[in-house]
Specification:
Keywords: Methyltransferase, Transferase. With about 375 residues, this protein is of the alpha/beta class. About 25% of the residues lie in helices and about 25% in strands. The protein folds into two domains: about 180 residues, Rossmann fold (3-Layer(aba) Sandwich); about 90 residues, NAD(P)-binding Rossmann-like Domain (Rossmann fold). The chain has nine helices and 21 strands. The strands form five sheets. A seven-stranded mixed beta sheet has the order 10-9-8-11-12-15-14, with helices on both faces. The protein has a six-stranded mixed beta sheet with strand order 18-19-17-16-20-21. Strands 1-4-5-13 form a four-stranded antiparallel beta sheet. The chain binds zinc ion. Zinc ion binds next to loops.
Length: about 375
């Protein structure tokens, strides 16, 4: 039995609801790490958490370089109706829509990485005073472009910020924090009375990949967001599940004291949603395992898709030696390597390929493969997730 305590309410947790296959799991940057990952559900506060990776401080300080290559890289956010928008633009639009930020406000972006969102906010609102904090020095060149070095800190926030900040923001950062209670107590101390906390985290219930990402320690639910904030001295003003598809947008206000007598609502209906997620991913893992055993003698293997699902398949296979290539339609991925294997266009799929794992979102996978003309005449067995 693996012992794990809930990092939101402190309760001891029962057995994991999900574990990866073997000693392998994948990170949010689609890297394979040589360690199993276990997901737990806390029935008391409704939190879902993944055991923190070992050496997590070193990982963020040295290895974790999200979109570090240039300022302009961004991620497109898709909506169910097919429309797309760049993530940073959406984040700026949303915070200005939701929050009346006072004139000349001091705004700290906590765990900010390059802090592209706050930089773009300051371009639109030149009165705002940007403050920056993260646990890595990798981002200093980006901070230097728009903030005063007096107002940034690495590893520990500056003591004179205490009680001085109007707003603290956290954009896709809190899900990585192994001790969210300690972080929220610190945010509480940094804010002025009645100061605002504004936060975006993935919603694992609508963004299912989040559930199996090894470095996302926290998979928040509405219940666990409430529990965390109320017990660290905040009043929850809003939890919006719609404006950012696949994420929670949270707005809270600092109040005088933490409410440790918080009455936890029932997490019964949440338990079945967590169970569904666990079944979904366990089912995929089982399917890959069985297919690999059945097709052991068939010859060369390829994985279609070099994104999250393709990487997940690679993490489940026991024999990567047989994999001759990843296939990807995206010209920006072709020519790169993943786990030492070439990423090629469908036209360049090696002729000896007999088995193909389709690493695409299961809802669109069959249709996508059917639409690739050059695969139609090939003698290949497909494994759909
Ligand atoms: Zn809990």
């Amino acid at each position: 039995m693996i012992e794990q305590v809930c990092n939101v309410c402190g309760d001891s947790l029962a057995d994991p609801v999900f574990s990866t296959v073997g000693e392998k799991s994948i990170t949010s940057l689609c890297e394979l790490v040589p360690t199993a990952s276990h997901v737990f559900f806390c029935r008391r506060c409704g939190h879902v958490l993944t055991s923190p990776m070992k050496n997590i401080e070193a990982y963020y300080s040295e290895d974790y370089q999200i979109l570090i290559d240039s300022e302009e890289e961004d991620q497109l956010v898709s909506f169910p109706d097919g429309s797309k928008i760049f993530r940073f633009e959406l984040q700026v639009d949303t915070i200005f829509d939701k929050m009346d930020i006072p004139l000349n406000a001091k705004v700290l972006d906590y765990g900010c990485a390059k802090s592209t969102t706050l930089r773009k906010m300051c371009e639109r609102r030149t009165d705002l005073k940007p403050y920056l904090f993260d646990v890595s020095e990798n981002y200093l060149p980006f901070w230097d472009k728009f903030a005063d070095s007096e107002n940034w800190a690495v590893f520990d926030p500056k003591p004179d910020w205490k009680g001085n900040l109007d707003v603290v923001t956290s954009f896709f950062s809190l899900e990585h924090v192994s001790e969210p209670v300690a972080m929220m107590k610190q945010v509480h101390a940094l804010l002025k009375d009645q100061g605002f906390f504004y936060c975006i985290v993935p919603n694992t219930f609508t963004n299912t990949a989040d559930f199996v990402v090894a470095d996302h320690v926290n998979h928040f639910s509405v219940l666990s967001i409430h529990a965390l904030l109320v017990r660290t001295g905040f009043e929850v003003l809003e939890i919006d599940q719609d404006v950012h598809y696949g994420a929670f947008v949270i707005m809270a206000k600092k109040v005088d004291s933490a409410n440790l007598d918080y009455d936890f609502p029932s997490s019964e209906s949440l338990a079945s949603a967590v169970n569904e997620l666990s079944e979904f991913w366990s089912g995929i893992s089982r399917k890959i395992e069985e297919f690999e055993q059945q097709n052991d003698l068939e010859g060369a293997v390829a994985i279609y898709g070099s994104g999250f699902y393709g990487t997940y398949i690679a993490s489940c296979l026991t024999d990567m030696e047989k994999v001759v290539a990843f296939v990807d339609q995206n010209p920006f991925r072709q020519g790169l390597k993943l786990f030492g294997k070439d990423i090629v266009s469908p036209e360049k799929l090696p002729v000896e390929t007999r088995v193909m794992y389709v690493g695409l979102n299961p809802t669109i996978a069959r249709e996508s493969i059917r639409s690739v003309g050059c695969l139609a005449d090939r003698n290949i067995s497909y494994c759909y997730l």
